[in-house]
């Protein structure tokens, strides 16, 4: 941990000042695209209009012989394609890989002023963030950038989960974290072959009750990790995200998995396919009826004090704060989405 007095000092002479607050905008989905694919690049303006965040992926899913093409495609996207105000992120290759140094040097030098966040895979501890932190500062200084590029860590190794709090607090550049259920499953030696979602074998069985069939319920394999991630992120003032749901055609399963994460405190999830954008939008935008109720609570207790009854339910300071979370999110989303503004009466 750095001396608190120097925590917000730039890590290289000439690098921009670290931010005190992480920028907040709609973050319901981080939409992944393959920048080595001409077809996906051609679709980017449409994707930018429908996704909250666009991410050019350079790591897993990009084959070794297309790594350089992907990097070059992302530079082109950042320079030449009009993405409006949609934030542009990247996922660079893993820190031990032969590509990551060129990923960082090229992207910061060529499109550093357009790039909002660098997602770092397989983060194991604060030392990984410190490495990227210092390197980004040096590159930002050389490129003359005026705004720091933020870091988003993927939580996808057992060691990373064990160190989740120190990762969340490793740098003022930390924007947030995503669950990486595929690599995490492998790292933990879980016996699954899926990318996120549940498993029919992971369930609890009710006690025998005579001849009646015993009730049985599937459980969420990711509950524990999401809980740890949400607490670590909230405590550090950064944002937790569910990661990918790999069964592209199972939109119902995707919705259920995203909803569990939303209810537990995640602000968004990844979309790997255009069909998942609508799912994330639906799940991570609060229900109009919940927003209406939350507004009633805020109006009933305008100074956040005392105790009240609304529809038979006790309301006090704590429910006022919950309602504020809901209404603040609704206002943020409504400011950019006329349909939601109407649904929320804002
Ligand atoms: C564990 C992890 O690390 S997850 C993160 C890494 N993985 C990724 O980034 C995967 C990103 N997604 C993809 O590559 C693709 O969506 C796939 C391979 C999963 C499925 O692709 P396809 O089989 O082409 O799907 P499908 O046929 O339904 O695609 C329909 C259209 O959407 C396009 N499309 C598919 N995915 C995307 C995307 N992520 N962004 C933009 N367009 C897309 C296809 O190119 C196709 O376009 P067309 O109609 O002009 O031909
Ligand atoms: C998200 C990711 O990279 C994983 O699940 O492995
Ligand atoms: Mg992974």
From TrEMBL:
It comes from the Bacteria. The keyword Membrane does not apply. Its cofactor is Mg(2+). GO terms for molecular function: lyase activity; magnesium ion binding. One of its GO terms (biological process) is oxaloacetate metabolic process. Keywords: Lyase, Magnesium, Metal-binding. Residues 32-255 form the HpcH/HpaI aldolase/citrate lyase domain. The keyword Lyase applies. It holds the Pfam family HpcH_HpaI. Substrate binds at residues 91, 156. Mg(2+) binds at residues 156, 183. This is CoA ester lyase. It comes from Solirubrobacter ginsenosidimutans. The lineage of its organism: Bacteria, Bacillati, Actinomycetota, Thermoleophilia, Solirubrobacterales.
């Amino acid at each position: 941990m750095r001396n608190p007095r120097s925590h917000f000092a730039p890590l290289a002479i000439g690098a921009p000042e670290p931010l005190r607050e992480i920028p907040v905008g709609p973050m319901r989905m981080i939409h992944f695209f393959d920048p080595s694919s001409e077809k996906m690049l051609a679709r980017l303006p449409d994707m930018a209009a429908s996704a909250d965040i666009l991410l050019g992926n350079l790591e897993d899913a990009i084959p070794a012989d297309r790594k350089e093409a992907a990097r070059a495609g992302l530079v082109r996207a950042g320079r030449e394609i009009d993405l409006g105000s949609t934030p542009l992120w990247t996922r660079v290759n893993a820190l031990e890989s032969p590509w990551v140094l060129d990923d960082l040097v090229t992207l910061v030098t060529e499109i550093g002023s357009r790039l909002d966040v660098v997602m770092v895979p397989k983060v194991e501890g604060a030392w990984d963030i410190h490495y990227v932190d210092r390197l980004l500062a040096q590159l930002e200084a050389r490129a003359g950038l005026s705004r720091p590029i933020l870091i988003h860590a993927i939580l996808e190794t057992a060691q990373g989960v064990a160190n989740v709090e120190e990762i969340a607090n490793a740098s003022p550049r930390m924007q947030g974290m995503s669950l990486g259920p595929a690599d995490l499953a492998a790292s933990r030696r879980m016996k699954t072959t899926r990318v996120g979602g549940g498993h029919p074998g992971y369930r609890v069985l009710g006690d025998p009750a005579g001849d009646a069939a015993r009730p049985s319920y599937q459980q969420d394999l990711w509950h524990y990790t999401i809980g740890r991630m949400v607490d670590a992120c909230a405590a550090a003032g950064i944002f937790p995200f569910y990661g990918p749901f790999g069964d592209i055609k199972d939109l119902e399963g995707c919705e259920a998995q995203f909803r569990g994460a939303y209810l537990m405190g995640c602000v968004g999830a990844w979309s790997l396919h255009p069909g998942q954008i609508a799912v994330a939008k639906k799940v991570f935008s609060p229900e109009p009826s919940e927003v209406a109720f939350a507004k009633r609570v805020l109006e009933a207790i305008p100074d956040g004090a005392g105790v009240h009854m609304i529809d038979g339910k006790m309301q006090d300071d704590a429910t006022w704060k919950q309602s504020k979370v809901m209404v603040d999110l609704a206002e943020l989303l409504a400011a950019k989405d006329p349909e939601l503004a109407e649904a929320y009466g804002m």
